[in-house]
Task: inverse folding
């Protein structure tokens, strides 16, 4: 993470210098004029990079240890985290995606389809959440 912090501080410096160069270049090309959109936009991108660098720096100091990606002797599997439990045989995510697409179809084609899609979304979402509470896999 230390590399990420350094990268975003470098990006902050680059965008601030680019902002100054853009402002000066525009002023020289247009007889002292000022173009606010580009100047403010590039400056805000630099400010965003500084916010991200500051946040990552605070997270790095709060962790109190090195991450696996910061060590030279780390293996790929050292950074693996627990992702949770997923059902590889579940059809509920596909049905939820289909019912959500019916909702979006209703927004595009006719609003009378939206309540049908929302009802299907509610049914499929409840089915997915309570998948392990009934049938062969019930607790």
Result:
């Amino acid at each position: 993470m230390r590399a990420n912090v350094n990268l975003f501080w470098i990006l902050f410096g680059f965008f601030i210098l680019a902002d100054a160069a853009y402002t000066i270049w525009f002023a020289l090309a247009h007889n002292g004029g000022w173009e606010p959109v580009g100047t403010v936009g590039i400056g805000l991108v630099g400010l965003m990079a500084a916010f991200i660098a500051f946040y990552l720096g605070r997270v790095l100091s709060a962790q109190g240890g090195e991450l696996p990606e910061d060590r030279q002797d780390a293996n790929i599997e050292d950074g693996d985290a627990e992702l949770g439990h997923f059902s590889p045989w579940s059809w509920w995510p596909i049905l939820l995606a289909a019912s959500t697409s019916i909702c979006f179809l209703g927004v595009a084609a006719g609003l009378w389809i939206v309540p049908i899609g929302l009802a299907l979304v509610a049914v499929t979402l409840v089915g997915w959440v309570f998948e392990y509470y009934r049938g062969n896999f019930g607790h």
About this structure: The two ends are 41 Å apart (CA to CA). The first helix runs from residue 2 to 29. The mean pLDDT is 90.
